What does this fold into?
Amino acid sequence: MAETFNFRLITPTGVLFDGAVEQVTAVGPLGEFGVLPMHTNFITSLAPGVITLRLGDASFNEFLLAGGLAEVKDGVMTALAVEAEAPGAVDRARAAVEATTAEHRLAAMSMFDPEYEEAEQALRLARARAQIEQLRRAPR
Amino acid sequence: MATLKAIRRRIASVKTTQQTTRAMKLVAASRLRRAQEALLNARPYHEALKRVSDSLLASAPAALGAPEGARRALMLVVVTSDRGLCGGYNANLTRLAEETMRKARADGLEVKLFAIGRKGAEHFKRAKTPLDGERINNLPRLATVGLARDVASRMLHDFRTGAVAEAGVIYAAFHSALSQRPTYEKLLPVAPPPADSAARGADYLVEPSAAELIPAVLRSYVEAAIFHALLEGEASEHGARMTAMDSATNNAVDMIARLTLEMNRARQAQITRELMDIVGGAEALRG
It folds into this structure.
């Protein structure tokens, strides 16, 4: 059995996952990154997307995150998500509509609008929801 | 003394009131339990976020201040309930809000009021205090991540563009079903973390960079703080309502007991009066 480390996924409404994992793959501002045991202390933000956990028994667990923060401290990883849901619970049809609305909104906005960043995040989240099947990495 | 019929009608009406207040108390009790659970569930997030933001914000205190030339204004978010019948809950909150506004004005700050909850919004409208914004009818749940994010983004937007130099929230901190304390919490500008925790910030690898991460952290921090205020407010509201409805039910019980006594007296008096009449009539006939 491979080495594991402790991982916690926390949202404002509760702790969604707390246990030993072999590897965590998530999407940060610079692209996808993976965390293995013995990772150095680390802080980054999370972009909307899928976070994949490889558990000790070689099974996988996935969550869709609406963005947040991730921290590795003394070998323990904590992901703070604004919102998280199981991929199975995602309504793809609605997400597609949301993505289109968000695209239009963003297109009509100036880059310097204070809400630009927020609109961009909303678009990324809607896109992640709409393409959830492609984003899932765990073998099924 | 009221007539027998009037007293009976009173008793019936008090009984209905009692049934209503008792039902409301039970509903409030179960909602309170749920709200308390939610409050508990939010704690790990709050604590972890505080740890992360402390270590990160300590490294760049300059990024936290209001932009230069920001208006001397305070954005004050007041969390009240949408529904009444919860004792002095809303009155206590609006009183603290008005006190805070007075103090801020004395400091030369202009106050921009933002009301969450119908009771607060109505109070300020009655008092002819201009509202900068309101969110009412947050039913069935007050504390939702969506509402917190909505208010937080408004707050951050105003802060970043320099429309306000300070922002804070007023809510009732939940201690127990019997005690809820109105509290003012200053959110922006963020107070730099104490010096002893500053050293910890150094041993992190931060990606992409602290300066780029701080807006995201700040956003999460404000969102979490407002969400927390909403959760506390929700639990406090149900606690206050439970207590208020409990004492209302007790009052109704007392009142029914008093009215029943009065009713029996009235009935007895009537019987006595009728007997006197009969005896008097018989005496007169015999005479």
